[in-house]
Design a protein that fits this description.
31% strand; Glucose Permease (Domain IIA); 3 domains; alpha+beta; binds zinc ion; 19 strands; Nuclear Transport Factor 2, Chain: A; 9-stranded antiparallel beta sheet; 430 residues
Length: 430
């Protein structure tokens, strides 16, 4: 009869009743404190594994169960001016222990690299003795230092195995490259990588147009099915004003065209990073730049004062000074034939006679000299003659080494196929 009554009750009431029943059961069977002490032959030990007799049917329960099983690591945030000794002191440990830890083999030296914002995990036993230290070196590497006996610790670096999978992104430029890439779900670091791969062929600051498009295949790393980080771009295609550029990653870490020519060239197309210039995209749509170039034999990049300007190629600074026309300016000689000039800096970052590397910051955008507003005026000279840096034919890039050509051809064929497949997937999805 009781059963019948129960069945007729609403679900909430049933739950309440069974909860109450359980509570009463617990009250009946719970031992008094004294009884417990005498019965309690099994004290839980730190670091020992115990089976947990619970049924697990939600991720939260699983998490709770796992936490019971995990030793109590204490997390210490590394602050400005911290070092190992200070952190161990905060944890109530002795200078002696700091000494043991810091001399626990060559891997322990990694602790010298700790930076504010990172964290150190300590495992301290109930007697207040340090058992282990963990320090995350990267997304896949962890330094672990463990006690061996009373006064000896050993260090090791644990490496996490990651699964690599491929992801891809495609987009067409409507307002600017950055927005198109974000809309295509390309992570921020990959947007910059993509611009870097094509930075020798395409001036991302001034030469992108509405209708330009990109197609990228990149790696993603997973650990136990969980996303850890995005990896390298393995293949990419960029269509700029109707011209198609394709780049394939080789095992040497460099990018080549499918025919095996290096993407890396003696000169970058633009001596400023596009991310500072993207706002000028709309204004340049009708392309007055060519005419403007003829009028004053240089290319102007409007950018905020202080925007870093980089050397377009390796070379030597042949002039770094100030005059009332050019303001603060820098000239660089590249080999025999080429000179690049950068005018109107607010501040120079190099000196005359200095060697510079491609991509090195040589000064900061300003409006010194005859300049209406902050901008970089950039000139490119071949054998003393001004040429348009964005259209001039540049020295041919070196092809891939002969003994690598065959291996690369195989990779390239596979990657070109991948690029084609992603296009078909997108077409099918739309
Ligand atoms: Zn100019």
């Amino acid at each position: 009869m009781v059963q019948k009554t129960l069945k007729q009750l609403p679900i909430k009431h049933k739950a309440l009743l069974s909860g109450l029943a359980l509570f009463l059961l617990v009250l009946i069977f719970i031992p008094s404190e004294q009884a417990q002490a005498s019965k309690n032959s099994q004290i839980l030990e730190v670091g020992k594994r115990y089976d947990i007799p619970v049924s697990i049917d939600s991720p939260e329960q699983l998490q709770q169960a796992l936490e019971v099983d995990t030793p109590d690591w204490q997390v210490f945030k590394i602050k400005q001016g911290d070092n190992l000794a200070k952190i161990l002191h905060r944890a109530g440990l002795t200078p002696q222990e700091t000494h043991y830890v810091s001399t626990a083999g060559k891997d322990a030296k990694q602790l010298l690299k700790m930076r504010p914002g990172q964290q150190l995990e300590l495992l301290i036993d109930p007697a207040g003795q340090l058992e282990s230290i963990r320090y995350q070196l990267s997304s896949t590497k962890t330094l672990e230092i463990d006690r061996q006996d009373t006064n000896k610790f050993a260090s090791k670096i644990l490496e996490q195995n990651l699964d690599t999978r491929f992801n891809f992104a495609q987009g067409e430029i409507v307002s600017n490259f950055w927005n198109a890439a974000v809309k295509a779900n390309l992570p921020e670091n990959q947007i910059m990588n993509l611009a870097g791969i094509f930075g020798w062929d395409i001036d991302f600051a001034l030469e992108l147009r509405q209708g330009d498009s990109f197609n990228v295949v990149y790696e993603e790393h997973f650990s136990n099915g969980e996303f850890v980080e995005s990896g390298k771009i393995v293949a990419a295609e960029f269509v700029n004003q109707g011209e198609v550029f394709t780049a394939i990653l080789h095992e040497d870490g460099n990018y080549y065209t499918p025919q095996g020519r290096s993407m890396r060239k003696s000169f970058l197309r633009a001596p400023v990073n596009f991310k500072y210039i993207s706002s000028s995209f709309k204004k340049k749509r009708f392309h007055p730049v060519q005419k403007r170039w003829k009028a004053h034999r240089g290319v102007d990049y409007a950018a905020n004062t202080g925007t870093p300007v980089i050397a377009a190629g390796d070379g030597r600074v042949i002039r770094a000074t100030y005059d009332k026309f050019n303001g603060h300016h820098v000239f660089i000689q590249h080999g025999e034939k080429y000179v690049t000039k950068y005018l109107h800096f607010t501040k120079r970052a190099v000196k005359k006679g200095q060697s510079v590397k491609q991509g090195q910051v040589i000064g900061y955008v300003g409006a010194t000299g005859l300049a209406a507003g902050p901008h970089l005026h950039y000139e490119f000279l071949v054998d003393g003659v001004h040429r348009n840096p964005r259209t001039v034919a540049l020295p041919q890039a070196k092809p891939i080494a002969k003994d690598e050509a065959q291996a690369f051809a195989k990779i390239a064929a596979k990657r070109v196929e991948q690029l084609g497949n992603t296009k078909r997937i997108m077409l099918a999805m739309n």
